[in-house]
Amino acid sequence: MASYNPYGGGYPDSRYCYLNPFEVKHRRRTTKTQFKLLESTFHETPKPSAALRKQLSVQLDMPQRAVQIWFQNRRAKAK
Hints:
By secondary structure, this protein is an all-alpha fold.
């Protein structure tokens, strides 16, 4: 019989997927050097490939998702 799971998730035993709801994620600002490289890359390639985004994330010490979101936001700003 499946037991009630107070953490949600749809699975009876999702304690291994538990995220602390009180843990706050703070916004990370890009540094000037990160910004310069991202901007120069944007002027060359507004829609970088996944491989280029991965390379940038390693080079800039940023999560891949943050690089992807940066480019999405920059394209929206360019409109």
